[in-house]
Amino acid sequence: MIELQHVTKLYPASGRPALDDVSTEIDKGEFVFLIGSSGSGKSTFLRLLLKEDDPTRGTVTVNGKTLNTMSKWQVPKLRRTMGCVFQDFRLLRNRTVAENVAFALEVINKPHRTIKRVVPEVLEMVGLEGKAARLPHELSGGEQQRVAIARAFVNRPLVLLADEPTGNLDPETSEGIMLLLERINRTGTTVIMATHDYHIVDSMRRRVIELNGGQITRDQTRGVYGVGR
Amino acid sequence: MRVNFVLSEVATGLRRNLTMTVAMILTTAISLGLMGTGLLIAGMISDMKEIYYDKVQVSIFLADDVTDEQRGAIEAQLADSPEVQSYLYESKAEAYERFQQQFSQQPELVENTPADALPESFRVELVNPERYEVIAAEFPNGQNGVDQVRDEGDFLDRLFSLLNGARNATIAVAVVQALAALLLISNTIQLAAFNRRNETNIMRLVGASRWYTQLPFILEAALAGLIGALLAVGGLVLTKVLFVDKTLAGPIKAGIIPPVDWGAIATISPIIAGAGVGLAAVAAYVTLRLYVRL
């Protein structure tokens, strides 16, 4: 599903590699926590999977396609199979909840009929039925993140990448978001979530990949945030 | 491609950067207007060459006290000369008539010119217009009833080099303006892309094609280019109606300079529009490729 082989990523501005000879494999339908301190390489890991950046060395494979050799015009096709959620939600402020979700489908040329059908479905799934006409600033942080998740999931991606999705939310709201991500995972979508939230990691007991200085220092199938905690 | 979506993006983009958009449109309009003027002058020059060059090449003006014999001798010499293709005699009366016609718009000038002030002359067309020197040598100035031999071609050359200079200067300014317009377009597109970075970032992440993401920006520039071109054409029309047709009415009527007709403007308008739209779109595309991550 996803495979990194001896991946090293150097940024020109920094002497230390952001990722240093990282090799790992993530299967379809897995739920993976990516943990590690700031600057440990979590974001770089996610960026490489999206082909926002190319590795300096090594190969990245997603859905059987090697990203290194993928041409530029094929990148949109790759990204249509992936959903992204961020700490800061990244909603369009002047569009309603439904329009924000529909936007993701409009710009990849989905027919109107399909959009009309699937947007309410996905809003119901994330628990925002009845709020379709609200603007983002009329929603709570947790609700905004649900909109972002709805947008990431509406095209039924094979992989959902979440970069600290609970970073701006209180523990209770975070729990609701995690339940949602778990539900998405149960539909067969691979979920990779970078996080600092040890409560969440400890309570979910899923696979944990810990990065430290750009290297994988731990990879546990039912891990917790800190060893010996 | 969702037409409504693209068009609403274009409209939003133009509205958000209103001042930049106006600047972009105006510079484009000035540049294209000058380009159009240059093209019109070029057309005018070739029209004028047709009017003038084929006619008179050398004029032999006769002295006031020329005798019939001298006139006859000159005519015979012209008739025999292998250099001469054809010639035409113009009497004082004919010269005055033509003068009246040419300056019909300036009656004071005509009134103040006595009927016999204009010299009689032979208008000579040469086999080879470059051979003016030969004719000039055959008819020395101030002798045998010849007052002056004038190479009209020489005068026309100077006139046309002046007009060519005007055309070149206009086009040069147009090019400089075009450069300014292109830089402004590039700047506006960068601003527009920055203003809409949230949208384009999301589009990029959800897998919108590059083309889909770029098209609104390119259309935005192309639309501004088109509006600029329309303004430029409007400017040319106004120049024709208010300046050329009014101020230059006399010389045009007299056939000294050719009129700027609607046909010429109709011919260059699509050129101007094409140049405006094309250059703006290319500038936007290049800007997006070079400076903007989409």
Automatic annotation (TrEMBL), chain A:
GO terms for cellular component: plasma membrane. Gene3D superfamilies: P-loop containing nucleotide triphosphate hydrolases. GO terms for biological process: cell division. It is a peripheral membrane protein. It is found in: Cell membrane. The keyword Transport does not apply. Keywords: ATP-binding, Cell cycle, Cell division, Cell membrane, Membrane, Nucleotide-binding. Residues 2-227 form the ABC transporter domain. GO terms for molecular function: ATP binding; ATP hydrolysis activity; transmembrane transporter activity. Part of the ABC transporter FtsEX involved in cellular division. Has ATPase activity. Homodimer. Forms a membrane-associated complex with FtsX. Belongs to the ABC transporter superfamily. This is Cell division ATP-binding protein FtsE. It comes from Geodermatophilus normandii. The lineage of its organism: Bacteria, Bacillati, Actinomycetota, Actinomycetes, Geodermatophilales. The gene is ftsE.
UniProtKB/TrEMBL annotation, chain B:
Keywords: Cell cycle, Cell division, Cell membrane, Membrane, Transmembrane, Transmembrane helix. It is found in: Cell membrane. It is a multi-pass membrane protein. The chain crosses the membrane at residues 21-45, 169-194, 215-242, 262-288. One of its GO terms (cellular component) is plasma membrane. The keyword Glycosyltransferase does not apply. Gene3D superfamilies: 3.30.70.3040. Part of the ABC transporter FtsEX involved in cellular division. Forms a membrane-associated complex with FtsE. This is Cell division protein FtsX.
